[in-house]
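Recall that a protein's primary structure is simply its ordered list of amino acids. Everything else, from secondary elements to tertiary packing, is in principle encoded there. The following example makes that idea concrete.
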Amino acid sequence: MNASSRLRKAIDEAYPQLVSISDSNAATPPAPGKWSPKQVIGHLIDSASNNHQRFVRANFTDDLIFAGYDQEKWVLLGDYANAPWSSLLTLWREFNLQIARVMDATPASVRDLLRTRHNLHQVAWSSVPEDQPATLGYFMSDYIDHLEHHLAQIG
């Protein structure tokens, strides 16, 4: 299954379960020091925001060098804990459907190109050693692995 189909499948499977969670339950962390479902989805929105631009930019560069971000600070600043659950879910779903369209529009020659310059040892969920080549296709798949990991925390 290609990355865009896999992403759409993850969205289609998770969304009905997520919308069945009440706003008050979505605001409740599972344990002290853990993110609530709202904050997890907020983190996935931040991830979508960062990775959307990474995937687009990688179509026009020879490397896979991307800025990182401090996920804890982003979740705090996004104030996801106080956002309406339905709004967060809509944004998360639509943003990821757009990412799937970007994945579809990325030519195989770009997606599968081995890039020797990358920082996926720093920004990927499952890192690639700096001295090994990487592909945008790997990074796209890694994005979905990360998304599925966090959805499993909620479900």
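The chain has a mean pLDDT of 97. Residues 54 and 66 are 7 Å apart (CA to CA).
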